[in-house]
Write a structure and sequence with these properties.
By secondary structure, this protein is of the alpha+beta class. Strands 2-1-4-3 form a four-stranded antiparallel β-sheet, with no helix packed on it. About 40% of the residues lie in helices and about 20% in strands. Strand 3 and strand 4 form a beta hairpin. The model has no long low-confidence stretch (mean pLDDT about 85).
Length: about 80
């Protein structure tokens, strides 16, 4: 039993890391060509990939901190030209 646990545990850990990476990528991918507009000051910001992937969101906005005013708010994406 211990031998089975020693061999399968690294495989399960690796599988969990792969699944988490895929989920984060799928959350980030739609916003890779976007900047966000602050609802308070109107500033435009481009947060990092991890910040966008981990931030909670509504239908068309993400909860992100503004780089200009520092407030946390649901920011609307503005799509860049490809």
């Amino acid at each position: 039993m211990q031998l089975l646990l020693r061999t399968l545990l690294p495989i399960f850990i690796l599988a969990a890391i792969v699944v988490a990476s895929i989920l984060l990528y799928k959350r980030w991918r739609p916003y890779r060509n976007a900047h966000f507009i602050c609802p308070y000051c109107g500033g435009v910001t481009a947060p990092g990939r991890i910040a966008v992937a981990l931030s909670p969101g509504r239908l068309e906005s993400r909860l992100l901190p503004c780089t200009k005013c520092g407030k946390l708010g649901y920011m609307i994406p503005v799509w860049d030209a490809k």
